[in-house]
Amino acid sequence: MSVLLGKGTRVIVQGLGREGRFHAERMKEYGTKVVGGTKPGAGGTSIDGIPMFDTVAQAVDETGANASIVFVPAPAAMDALLEAIDAQIDLVIAITEGIPIADMLKVAAVLETAATTLVGPNGPGAITPGQSKIGIMPAENFSPGGVGFVSRSGTLTYEIADLLTRAGLGQSTCIGVGGDPVVGLPTPDAVRLLNEDPETEAIVIVGEIGGAAEERAAEYMRAEGKKPAVAFIAGRSAPPGKRMGHAGAIVSGNQGTAESKVRAFEEAGIPVANAPSEIPGLVKKALRR
Amino acid sequence: MKLHEYQAKQILAHAGIPIPDGRLATSAQEAEAAAKAIGAPVAVKAQVHVGGRGKAGGIKVAKTPAEAKTAAGAILGMDIKGLRVEKVYVERAADVASELYLGITLDRDRGRPVVMLSTVGGMDIEEVATSRPEAIARGWPSPLLGLLPFEARALVFAAGVAPAQREAVADIARRLYRVYGETDATLVEINPLFVQKDGSVLAGDAKLDVDDNALFRQAELAKLKEVSPDEESEEKARALGFSFGQLDGEVGVIGNGAGLVMATLDAVRNAGGHAANFLDVGGGAKEAVVKAALEIVLSNPRVRSVMINIFGGITRGDEVAKGILDVIQAHPPRVPLVVRLSGTEAEAGRKLLEKAPLESRATMDEAAAEAVRLAKEPAKA
């Protein structure tokens, strides 16, 4: 099943507010098995046909859920994530934007000894096209295939998925790792999953300025890469010290510059696209199609 | 969000970290009175939200209250990197024997806080980190446990702090870690941390940046927020729910999603132009938001053309198109607009814009090339 999610994935929704309900509906339309939702006090009721539970533990017990998507607003998001981790859910996808860094540091510390994989926060989620979508991405831009895709951004992911799809390059799994400085599954770890996935033939890595996740991913592929990869870095023209929307996208000192990331990929033999439109051509070339 | 030195020092003092006696002054007279009350010699220090104020002449040592008055008179009203100095902090000058560095921030690579201690204090620590990384001792405490006593001791030994100050410095490090946690800081720094000739240890300066995402639970700190003139547009944008950054080019840029907007700025540069700003309208932007975004971008006199790049997901192309039409019908823009709509309801959006006085392009690269070309055309009379 590609990686992280597939046909057998059973999802609960934490935070069925306006946004949560809208996307739960879109996920069901796509064929994702949405088996429950949680809202304290709403246990026993249902929202849009989704059975509701008071706690994540109850929802897991009664539905056999192995994944969760979190829309809970930032002030309560840490609690929601820790509740899902405590219930030993395999995959937790956090869409929430604006979670305090201190909260994510605590979540990351708990994750060190937990069995859960957390994707996000502040990302579009993940999709295995044709099988399951746990996220907020518009499904029509994605198609099944062999290109694994890791990205730190949202709409740029849709743009590039659309370009790949139009070029006849379907995707195995797309993972939106999230734009925050602290995320559950950083780019290098997401790349490792795809590198080890037999159904993934090539990997597209979309990064941004800030942090060193792309450099680490490049180092990993240089040492362990089993398949071709293509990279793109957004923010090459951004001046130092300016925060570019994502809390993670800021260049300070000599850390996290586009140059350093591009160099790391090139040293690993991974071509770097100058624009998203160049990505499909580079992937085809890498796959010798 | 940044705090001033005097504000950060209050927080440090409250946490039991020794600081020099000091007073805030907004006039030369107040500075003189402060120096009298504290006892000269004193340091008179500009309180502005920029680094390098010492080099810019924003810190002066005064041996007498009269000198403090003169120094404050010179510093108040001074322009430091575009910011006017409105207040000075007058504090008792330390009797310095040596200087240390102590700071706590996020180590993104490890996903943990990092505590840094060095006996190379008082200097630009980024410079030290690059040229002599071994001169900085580092520790990565668990955010669940805080900086434990043995971790603080290990840091003090690793940094080579003199035996007489080990205990005091380890204690300050643990207290500073508590400040880091309790204030939701993204950075808290004491540079320099003075060792005085009598052996005592004292915070010479203090820097504290608070996580904007945590201000909802830091009500007292949120009150200290100051918006400088060059941040006004950015603040206004934040209030409207989008993210804005001023740049110095001539092509205004509006897009949805931080990554896509960054890629758009790059596309403008690839086409030979320069972006005038970063503006992310966020997810699900409706007419009103698009309208406000256009107004902010057009308020920059340097803007010669505007590129709008929307890839619809939650955001609908038709809603965006309506917002654009609204603005240009009410106030015909003084510069040409280039629009690229794709994704959800993009077709409907493009249809709405067919008759509007603007350029529509199918791809990001084509739209960027057109926006750059139009920005270079001589302005219409």
Write a structural description.
The complex is a heterodimer of chains A (289) and B (381). Helices cover 33% and strands 22% of the residues of chain A. Chain A is of the alpha/beta class and 289 residues long. In chain A, strands 3-4-2-1-5-6-7 form a 7-stranded mixed sheet, sandwiched between helices. In chain A, strands 9-8-11-10-12-13-14 form a 7-stranded mixed sheet, with helices on both faces. In chain A, helix 6 runs parallel beside helix 7. Chain A is globular, with a radius of gyration of 18 Å. Chain B is an alpha+beta fold and 381 residues long. The mean pLDDT of chain B is 92. Chain B has 13 helices and 18 strands. In chain B, a hairpin with a 4-residue loop joins strand 7 (96-107) and strand 8 (112-118). At the A-B interface, helix 4 and helix 5 of A face helix 4 and helix 9 of B.
Helix content of chain A: 25-40%
The average pLDDT score of chain A comes to 94
Shape label of chain B = elongated
User: SS-based structural class of chain B?
Assistant: alpha+beta
Oligomer: heterodimer
Q: Which two chains share the most extensive interface?
A: A-B, 59 and 54 residues
Strand content of chain B: 15-25%
Spans where pLDDT lies below 50 across 5 or more residues of chain A:
none
Low-confidence parts of chain B: none
**SSE pattern of chain A, N- to C-terminal:** EHEEEHEHEHEEEEHEHEHEHEH
Q: Percent of residues of chain A in beta strands? A: 15-25%
Structural class of chain A: alpha/beta
How many DSSP H or I helices of chain B? 13
Instruction: Give the strand order, joined by hyphens, for the main sheet of chain A.
Output: 3-4-2-1-5-6-7
Biggest pleated-sheet summary of chain B: 6 strands, antiparallel
Largest sheet of chain A: 7 strands, mixed
The whole-angstrom Rg of chain B is 26 Å
> What fraction, in percent, of the residue positions of chain B are helical?
25-40%
